[in-house]
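Design request, tokens follow.
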């Protein structure tokens, strides 16, 4: 049964009208609830920079911690209200798609809970508040697969630009809310001396590592990727047995460090390396040697650049006859045909009802590989259990990269590869490579994306 809030969303309504009252007797309540929503949605989000988050958290005392709690308490409902309004403005055919009403309901419930949460005035109240926020963070773990499922299914009914801009706002805003919530919880744990929960190792303020070592994060991602099951899926969905993983060579300015959220950097690097490894294995099946993947770190004055180069067949590898590569960041099937594929929709459907949802840290992803539930598996023709590929890694990486003003670009290099013939030699299908360019701003002075 959908709640009243979700029913509001799923009832037919005239274009440009937002208030629809599902039952006569609940009209007054809905009117009141929507008034509240209007009130919050009319406020502007108080966007922050990474530097502000570090500076504020660096010298913590009781008063500052309580102020931080109240900022989260009052800021999150504003950000959620903006996204609820976005969902309400979608055409009816979109909001009836599987997954969308579930997200709406989760957001509505979180909005109401935050709105009603009383001001925090003491450390013990703050601890309770952190428990409350931690509970919501868990409850919202399935938002991404639900949203991706719903919007992928809506693809035939929405223009690609509209679909991608709604999805982008939903995802940026979600990252922003989780950053604020997780940062405050980490500040509290540090302040309260809950050592077992503290981030260990490198210096940090809340969830931000003040001198994040890029080479170390890359090495960690490589190590975690090598712990994966010993096969990958090819473009036809069949498994390729992995005898050895491609070598990853890291060069450039190896001692680069900068203030950043480690989970965000590692999510992106992990995803890019995962794709490069898979592409290399597919393009070089049966070859006695795999060409290495090269990761180059560059520390510019204002930014940190990471280039990941492979010789795995390039961006056209799965469809060599196509001349325009799919937009891998897009959720529209017109820009990326895989969005409506049966296996992808099935994988999203499983993830959207699993308790774990989709986790944002690489450790959680590895954990999921090792503990994926039987009903989420697909059996290949040769009897191997295949993990679901839900196809949100690259769009999410793009969102993580741009959240504080960075960028992510993928470039296909035709004719670049270990097995490429000489320019005048015969053409081969996999004679190409891909370069991924990640750029993250170093000074932390950019505000969070406008869409929060
Ligand atoms: C989300 O994960 O979508 C959130 O909005 C989290 C927030 C309620 C703490």
């Amino acid at each position: 049964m959908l709640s009243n809030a979700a029913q509001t969303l799923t009832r037919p309504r005239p274009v440009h009208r937002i208030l629809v009252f599902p039952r006569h007797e609940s009209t007054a309540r809905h009117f009141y609830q929507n008034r509240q929503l209007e009130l919050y949605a009319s406020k502007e989000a108080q966007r922050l920079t990474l530097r502000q988050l570090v500076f504020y958290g660096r010298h913590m005392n009781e008063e500052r911690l309580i102020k931080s709690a109240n900022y989260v308490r009052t800021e999150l409902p504003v950000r959620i209200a903006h996204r609820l309004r976005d969902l309400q403005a979608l055409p009816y055919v979109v909001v009836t798609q599987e997954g969308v009403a579930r997200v709406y309901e989760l957001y509505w419930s979180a909005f109401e809970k935050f709105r009603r949460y009383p001001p925090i005035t003491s450390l013990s109240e703050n601890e309770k508040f952190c428990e409350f926020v931690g509970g919501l963070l868990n409850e919202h773990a399935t938002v991404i697969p639900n949203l991706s499922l719903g919007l992928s299914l809506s693809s035939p009914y929405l223009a690609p630009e509209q679909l991608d801009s709604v999805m982008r706002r939903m995802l940026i805003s979600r990252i922003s809310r989780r950053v604020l919530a997780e940062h405050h919880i980490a500040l509290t744990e540090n302040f309260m001396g809950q050592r077992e929960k503290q981030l260990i190792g490198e210096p940090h303020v809340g969830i931000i590592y003040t001198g994040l070592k890029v080479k170390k994060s890359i090495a960690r991602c490589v190590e975690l990727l090598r712990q994966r099951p010993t096969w990958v899926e090819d473009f036809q969905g069949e498994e390729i047995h992995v005898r050895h993983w491609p070598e990853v060579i890291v060069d450039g300015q190896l001692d680069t460090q900068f203030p950043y959220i480690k989970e965000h950097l590692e999510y992106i690097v992990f995803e890019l390396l995962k794709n490069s490894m898979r592409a290399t294995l597919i393009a070089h099946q049966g070859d006695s040697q795999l060409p290495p993947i090269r990761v180059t770190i560059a520390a510019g004055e204002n930014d940190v650049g990471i280039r990941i180069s492979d010789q795995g067949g390039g961006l056209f590898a799965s469809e060599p006859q196509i001349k325009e590569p799919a937009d891998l960041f897009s959720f529209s099937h017109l820009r990326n045909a895989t969005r409506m594929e049966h296996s992808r929709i099935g994988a999203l459907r499983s993830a959207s009802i699993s308790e774990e949802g989709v986790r944002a840290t690489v450790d959680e992803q590895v954990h999921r590989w090792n503990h994926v539930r039987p009903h989420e598996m697909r059996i290949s023709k040769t009897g191997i259990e295949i993990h679901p590929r839900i196809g949100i890694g690259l769009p999410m990486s793009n969102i993580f990269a741009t959240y504080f003003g960075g960028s992510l670009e993928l470039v296909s290099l035709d004719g670049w590869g270990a097995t490429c013939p000489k320019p005048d030699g015969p053409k081969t299908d996999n004679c190409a490579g891909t370069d991924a360019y990640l750029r993250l701003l170093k000074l932390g002075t950019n505000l969070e994306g406008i869409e929060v």
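Comment from the thread starter after seeing the answer: thanks! Residues 76, 110, 133, 136-137, 140, 143, 174, 177-178, 181 surround 2-OXO-4-methylpentanoic acid (CB under 6 Å).
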